[in-house]
């Protein structure tokens, strides 16, 4: 696919690296965006990198009414020597196609789309921050833009990618966060869209997230939508525990998002020769393990949050405090290794790093 590039004539004032480290996650955007159109019969076409700005959409666009909209999240890092890399973007492209399939959207060409995203990152390379803990967050998304009010898959789509320099996702940074177990609302059910990265899953989580914040928590932990018994995931992240020296995470069951950081953590832990299991974990069993002193650490994983230790997990009257409110040994080791690989400061034994330039 040909890619037209139209550079802005009015570049924004780029924040300094120090300012970028302090800005609120996802609130500042670069100078350009990538757009690719889709029409039934024509396929993906008209790829272009253009100045960042508002999209023009017909008010009858199906995404605005029925939520046919999916997205991805990945990060670009500046490495020493000035190069720029992305972390496992092939995984995001593959997951995007799984989301497309679930939401009746046309598949993207993974390689061509990744090339176009890499080109966008290169065009806005000055925006990739280099202070430790910072990166350029890459947000690809696809929306249905056919003007049609019938409930039916759209015949036309827009793929877009925007870029946002970011520091830590949580205001706490790497300090442990407080989370409560949601036992009223549910995020997803088996057979639903939980495994797809579609906008509706996040809309469904907002009410609960708002209540959690009001109560002084950063996020909620979702239980399964049927029995409300098994641990699924946290807000925009997957969850892991260290129980008796074994690293444990809920198995993928169709309602949990298959996170790229989740997958990387599992692969790393196995490569270290540590016991690692993906299985059903009930909240009762976790509380039991905690009370009997067998649960050592709890942590969240995600592209935005990387590794985020959980200091406190509240389930009704049970308050589980992990590792004296400090980051645990396994969480720290995972954080150091993953961020080390992401920034090319550590050896990339698995071939996870994709060179933009
Ligand atoms: C990410 O981690 O990239 C996500 O998409 C989660 C989102 C809630 C920021």
Description:
This protein has nine helices and 18 strands. With 357 residues, it is an alpha+beta fold. The protein folds into two domains: 164 residues, 2-Layer Sandwich (D-amino Acid Aminotransferase, Chain A, domain 1), CATH 3.30.470; 166 residues, D-amino Acid Aminotransferase, subunit A, domain 2 (D-amino Acid Aminotransferase, Chain A, domain 2). Strands 1, 2, 3, 4, 5, 6, 7, 8 and 18 form a nine-stranded mixed β-sheet that branches. Strands 9, 10, 11, 12, 13, 14, 15, 16 and 17 form a nine-stranded mixed β-sheet that branches. Helix 3 crosses helix 4. The protein starts with a strand and ends with a strand. The mean pLDDT is 96. Bound molecules: 2-OXO-4-methylpentanoic acid (COI). The site of 2-OXO-4-methylpentanoic acid (COI) has 5 residues, from loops.
Indicate the topology:
Layout: E1 3-5, H1 17-22, E2 32-39, E3 43-51, H2 62-66, E4 69-71, E5 74-78, E6 84-87, H3 89-102, H4 110-123, E7 135-144, E8 156-166, E9 177-182, H5 199-203, H6 206-214, E10 219-223, E11 231-234, E12 238-243, E13 246-249, H7 260-271, E14 276-278, H8 283-291, E15 295-302, E16 306-315, E17 318-321, H9 329-342, E18 353-355
Parallel strand pairs: 1-3, 9-10, 9-16, 13-14
Antiparallel strand pairs: 2-3, 2-8, 4-7, 5-6, 5-7, 6-18, 7-8, 10-11, 12-13, 12-15, 15-16, 16-17
Helix pairs in contact: 3-4
The structure holds 2-OXO-4-methylpentanoic acid (COI).
